[in-house]
Amino acid sequence: MAENVEDLLPGIRRLGLGKRRVTMTDMTYGAGYSESSGDVYSFPKKSMPARNAYQIIHDTLKFDGDPTLNCATFLTTWMEPEAEKLIMENLGKNRVDIDEYESTERIHRRCLAHLHDLWNGPKGADATGTVVVGSSEGIMLGGLAMKWRWRLRREAAGKDTSKPNILFGANAQVALEKTARYFDIEARLVPVCEESHYCLDIHKAVDMIDENTIGMFVIFGSTYTGHYEDVAEMSKLLDKLQQEKGYDVPIHVDGASGAFIAPFAQPDLAWDFRVPRVVSISTSGHKFGLTYPGIGWVLWKAQEYLPSGLEFELSYLGGVEKTFTLNFSHPACFLIAQYYQFIRYGHEGYTRIMNACLYHARLLSVALEATGVYECFSDIHRPRGQFGFSEETRLSASNLFDETSSLGISSANPSVNEKFNWGAPVVAFRFTDWFITTHPKANQDIVSTFLRVRGWIIPNYPLPPDANTIRVLRVVVKETTSEDLINRLIRDVMWATQTMLDTETKSLGETLAKPLASDPSVTNLAHAVASSNTRTMDEHEKRSHWRGLLDKIGELKKINAGNNSTDEELADDGSSKPIYQKTC
Predict the structure, then answer these.
(1) Which of 49, 52, 61, 158 is spaced 20 to 30 A from 488 at the CA atom?
(2) Coil, strand or helix: which one is 330?
(3) CA dihedral over 583, 443, 477, 82, signed as positive or negative
(4) How far is residue 305 CA from its own chain's centroid?
């Protein structure tokens, strides 16, 4: 036996465990591997070390935006480490293999029972539904079920079944139109207008129904503005229509967002299975269900609303399984993560989170309108029953927010929302008419682009058909949208707006080349802006008010110009512009 390490070295080296020369495979960046070293659209011919493959993809993804600052998405961008651990531990499980993964299937059934209870399904009845990849698949299954039930009724009556149609608002998300197109159903889009809050006009919808109408999609949380369409009133109008013409039209609620908000923050609002004509509901677990992307849900009020012809029985996986999803295999890990959120937060925790989201959405809305430059098309911050922007509704919203802000940001009591309009925490806003008149060249796309400079992803898009001459910027307020982020967002929106104005008279380089502010603090900025405009202002006062806000965020500082020192007004009447210095 060797007495010292030196005697062992020859053998260690022969085994490759000792010193050896550094080769290219040891290197991460100096090995010569590149994503673009060959044709990236052809399947790679050679392999590469795992370290290099990881680094190439890792570095490529650095060009993506920051999910926390992605205000365009409704999707969940953060979960607790314990939830992520469960996801990683179960990545390899296929949800449909219920015989192999019995515990996962029990979790699936528990989640369905939780949602059946949350959406006020019939007491004592078993939950009828399934987990799906997202609410889009849920919508399609809900539409298919309505089509099959309509067809069965028509066939039993000896009537034609070749011309089914379905109604929904022109503000619909694309999944609703896909359902109609993919399954040979005529899509009848109900025009939107200002009076309908750019959502489904329930009175126009009634006039478009006939004997071939299989049902209606009612959107509970519009993608455009966050408004809830009126499910209960739509149901009443359909009851009246059936009495008059005999048309029996069911409702599928597209609750992609609202179905996880209203039960906690607005529990007294009837939109779910309490409404007689609601036969099915779909939602996204990966939106306000607080789970990472890859999960949705669809439930029917009772088994009778899911035609048996849509169900298949499979036995080749080891046990007998019923399936009625469009997709077959999909990961179990997000289902498990959803169950984690249910038992982790419970009713209390979800209520706190939804209340916080609504509070921050209202804070952002009131602050934006207080600038005088922006008006909101979303109405989540306005007193119940008040819609649309005017000086009267702006002041009413500001007063109500001030009155209720002391009730707590994340209260577990939904009563904090009682005086406000119902809706999802979405803020859709655009330039005010006054600002557009004063600055006809102002462009919201430029504001959106400048916000990207600060890391924010905030889209500027047209409203639905019949209102698509109007473009709005939109912010979806989620669990991760803290008050600190709202403060920073208000600052950056004001900076982007003023920078856009500067580009009318200066080059982009001159506009963006400025020193950092000496005091970049934004503590309580949103509240300060929200409370800064408490009365109706004339044009001169609006200009001075904007100048004061710029000064508050360090965007307007006096400098000497000879013996004079002046600040720039918001609007320019054509005279020479005063000299000022802007800071970031």
Answers:
(1) 61
(2) coil
(3) negative
(4) 29
Between β-strands 296-300 and 312-314, what pairing exists: parallel, antiparallel or unpaired? unpaired
Element (H, E) at 428: strand 426-431
| Token reading at 176 | 């609703």
* 214 token code pair: 């299989």
Structure-block tokens of residue 84: 């992520």
Torsion over CA: 362, 368, 372, 375 (sign): negative
pTM of the model: 0.90
Of 290, 269, 292, nearest in space to 356 by CA = 290
Residue 375 DSSP SS3: strand
* Side-chain half-sphere exposure of 254, counting CA atoms within 13 A: 31
DSSP for residue 18: S
Sheet containing strand 471-476, strands side by side: 374-376, 426-431, 471-476, 460-462
Distance, in Å, from the CA atom of 123 to the CA atom of 63, rounded to the nearest integer, reads: 51
**Residue holding tokens 């192999």?**
100
β-strand partners of 298: 130, 282
Contact criterion met (CB below 8 Å) for 279 and 108: no
pLDDT in tens, 268-327: 999 999 999 999 999 999 999 999 999 999 999 999 999 999 988 876 555 667 788 898
Strand order in the sheet with 278-284: 128-132, 296-300, 278-284, 251-254, 213-219, 165-169, 186-190
Structure tokens of 114?
């939780």
